[in-house]
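agent> fetching stored inputs for the cytidine-5'-triphosphate docking request
agent> found them:
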Amino acid sequence: MKEILESKRVLIGITGGIAAYKVNFLIRELKKMGADVRVIITGAGKEFVSVLTLETLSNNEVYSELFPKTGDKRIPHIELARWADCFLVCPATANFIAKSALGLADDLLSTVFISYNSNVIIAPSMNENMYLNKVVQENIRKLREGGHIIIEPEIGELACKEEGIGRLASIEKIIDWIKNVLIYRDEFKGKKVLVTAGRTEEPIDPVRYISNYSTGKMGFSIAEEANLKGGEVTLISGPTFLKPSSNIKYIPVKTAEEMAEAVKKEFLRNDVLIMTAAVSDYKPKRVSKSKIKRENERIQIELVKNEDILESIGKAKGNKITVGFSLETEDEISNSIKKLKKKNLDFIVVNNPLVDGAGFGKDTNVVKIIDKDENIESLPQMTKNELAIIILNKILKLMNER
Ligand code: CTP
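agent> prediction call returned; pasting C-alpha cells
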C-alpha cells in the first residue's frame, strides 16, 4: 500500500481558513504513499499555515504569485495546471467557492483553477451559517454541476466554538477521494450504466398530483460516481431540482408510465440498471381535464396500480445486472428479500426513511445491502456519495465475476 500513489502528481490549493493547518498532515500522508505534492497558497492562506512548513513537507517550492519575477520565463498557472494529475483545494473558503463558481481569476490559485480541466476535488470548511448560506450552497451546486467533486464538510465542533456542519472532512476521507480519482477512475470505462432517480408525479387534474418526498439525491450520486469512474451513464429522473453533469445522458420524466417506457427503451443498450427512483405505486384511474372544484364535501379518487418497472425488466434481463432500492418502515429484511426475489435482482439496498440519518432529501443514508444469497451487510451512516461508491464497487465485482 505504501507506494499506492507512486508518481501521482497532486496539486493542493490552500485558502484562508483555520483548517489550513490540517493540510500539513495531509501532505505528510500523501508523501508516505509516494505522491509528488505541490502547493499553491493564497495570501489569506499564509495567515494560517507557514510556507516553510509546506515546503519542507512537500519537498517542493510553494507557489503564490500569479506573475513571475522579472527574468523568470515560467508561466506558473499554465505549468502547474499541466503538471497536476489531480487538483485538490483544501480548505476551500466561501470566497474561493464563489470566485470559482463565477470563473473569476484574480490570483494564482483561481487562475490555475480555471486553467485546469481534469480531476478537481474541493474540500470546503467554514462556519455552519456560512456553509448553509443559500448563495454558498448555490455556488457549490454550480461547481458540482461542472463535474467537480465536493467533499462535504463534517458535523462537529467548529473553530468558532459552535457545533454544526463545516469541519473539514477527515484526512482519511480526503485521501480516499484522491485515490478514487487517481487510481479507481477508469473502472467503469466501456460500461454502460442506467440509473433512475427521484419521484414520479401522477396527475389528478391539471394542477394536482400524487407523489412522494424523494428528491433524487441518491440516484444522482450514483450517476455522478459512475460517470467519474469512466462509465457511460444514462440518468432517468422524475421531477427534481438537481442537475446532472453535462456528459451524463439525462432523460427527465414525470409519471411512472413515462419512466417505465424510458427504462425499457434504455435498458436494451445498458449493462446495469440501478433503480433508486421512488416510483408511485398507484395513479388516479381518471385524470380530470379541468381543475376539480371545491364543491362537494367529499370526493373519491380511484387509484389503479402502476406497472412494476423492475419486475418487468427482471423477467428478461439476461446477463445484465439489476439493483433495486427497498423503502420499508417495518419488517425491512423479510419484505426486502421478497422484493429481491420477485424482481429478480442481483442485490437490493434497504433503507428505512424513519431511521436517523436516512431518508428523502438528506445527504446521508443508512442502509443494509442484501444479495441474491440473502447475505445481509449493514452499513453505518454515510453520505450518499460514499454509499454510491460502495454500490458501484459491488456491481463492478459482479461484472468481473461474469
Ligand atoms: N419499483 C419499480 N416500479 C414500481 C415500484 C417500485 O421499479 N412501480 C422499484 C423501485 O425503484 C425500487 C424497488 O422497485 O428499486 C422497490 O421499491 P419499493 O417502493 O421499496 O417497493 P415496491 O415494490 O413498490 O413495494 P411496496 O411499495 O409494497 O413496499
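agent> quick read of the result: The chain has 14 helices and 22 strands.
agent> awaiting further instructions
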